Amino acid sequence: MKLAQRTKQIDSSGIRKVFNLAQKIADPINLSIGQPDFDVPEPVKQAAIEALQSGFNRYTVTAGLPELREKVLAKYRAKGFEGEDAIVTAGVSGGLVLSFLVLFDPGDEILMTDPYFVMYKHLANFIGARPVYVDTYPDFRLRPEAFEAALTPRTKALIINSPHNPTGTVYSEEELRGVADVAARHHLLVLSDDIYEHFFYQGEEAPTIASFYPNTLVLSGLSKSAAMTGWRLGFALGPAEIIRAMTELQQYSFVCAPSFAQQAALVALEHDMAEAREAYRRKRDLIYEGLQDLYTVQKPEGAFYIFPQAPSGDGEAFVARAIENKVLCVPGSVFSEKKSHFRISFAAPDETIQRGVEVLRRLADESG
Q: What distance in Å separates the CA atoms of residue 198 and residue 208, rounded to the nearest whole number?
């Protein structure tokens, strides 16, 4: 059978390739997967168990439990974002699929930073839209003039991900306001991927562009903050017209997000992240201080990734060497049009991070 042409626009995720490889290596030092190393908090588990045992196992309304949607809206109102409506999605990935499908026609252009989260590029290509990359190397900061220069008559939206995967950058309010000014002048929608909003290591709260740019669609969820990666629970909020279209499409695709997970999400949204955030601040310091004298690397301000430059300038070749030494990391080319860097996830036990640092320091010395 001949597959649809659009299937040729996507490739197997480089992250998943490393994940699969990890299954074949004895005692790997796995620094590849963006999945918290802590478990779902007990109160959240208990809420899910109670939902299952009470028979809460059927479909919910397509947009999600009204009380959960209201709780999500209230959370962002406290940040200054008056999102008109919300939908509960099957993870942020589900929200991205729905939003891209209802927003973009073939040929529409979507601005995104380079580096970028891998799904943005491939999903845009899959639906026939065109990803347009705004280079943020070498320091991974936002420059409004670079977004301005990338605009064309086909530009429809831009994507902001902060805290950022894969670089760990947290954009400042000044940077975000600069990009918001560009978006406002050109009547662009902003998609704000806030999934790592609880993992920030400077100040009280990671800034979000939604706080001062109303024409924003926020995408977030609980896979990272509550370690609910396998529960597939996310949400989107923003302009009512977009949420309505996403809800209609969800009716004929995902149907609804998992019902028991929606009940647990009511508890997870109240979970205090302070202890986990401090643990990940320590992990960030452990990996950064272990590498910064031998690698060209920016100190992560959020998320749980660090994005060093490969000593040879070839991230793909370096990752191959690292894997030969049992350190699993991901080539930067998975997240970028350049191949000079590689991504490390420090969402791992401290011992694993320390073992990884030892090997990576040795590989840097051998390359030097």
A: 12
Instruction: Confirm whether 50 is domain-assigned.
Output: no
**Same domain, yes or no, for 152 and 279?**
no
The backbone torsions φ and ψ at residue 65, rounded to the nearest 5 degrees and listed phi first, read -55, 130
Residues 108 and 229 reside in one and the same domain? yes
Mean pLDDT calculated for residue range 246-258: 97
Residues in contact with 107: Cβ distance below 8 Å, sequence separation at least 6, in sequence order: 128, 129, 130, 154
- Where do we find the tokens 């992990």? 283
Q: Do 109 and 161 lie in a common domain?
A: yes
Q: Final residue of a domain: which of 268, 284, 312?
A: 268
Alpha helices in 78-172 (DSSP H): 91-103, 118-127, 144-150
CATH number for position 134: 3.40.640.10
Would you say 347 and 33 are in contact if contact means Cβ atoms under 8 Å apart? Answer: yes
pLDDT of residue 7: 78
Higher pLDDT, 365 or 13: 365
- Tokens, residue 303: 């998320």
Structure tokens at 268: 């997870």
Which range marks the domain in which residue 264 is found?
58-268
Query: Do 127 and 217 share a domain, yes or no?
Result: yes
What φ, ψ does residue 119 adopt, rounded to 5°?
-65, -30
Number of domains in the chain: 2
Kindly state whether residue 153 falls inside one of the protein's structural domains: yes
The two tokens of residue 171 are: 């954009």
Write the CATH number for 285: 3.90.1150.10
| End-to-end Cα spacing for the chain | 51
Question: Are the beta carbons of 229 and 72 closer than 8 angstroms?
Answer: no
Looking from the CA of 207 toward its CB, the CA atoms found within 13 Å total 14
* Mean pLDDT of the residues in the chain: 94
pLDDT at residue 240 in the model: 98
**Cβ burial, residue 355 (10 Å; 0-12/13-18/19+):** middle
Beta strand 109-114 with 130-135 is: parallel
The answer to whether residue 51 sits within a structural domain is no
Whether residue 15 is predicted with pLDDT greater than 70 in this model: the reply is no
Element (H, E) at 112: strand 109-114
- pLDDT tens digits, one per residue of 257-287: 999 999 999 999 999 999 999 999 999 999 9
176 and 200 Cβ atoms separated by less than 8 Å: no
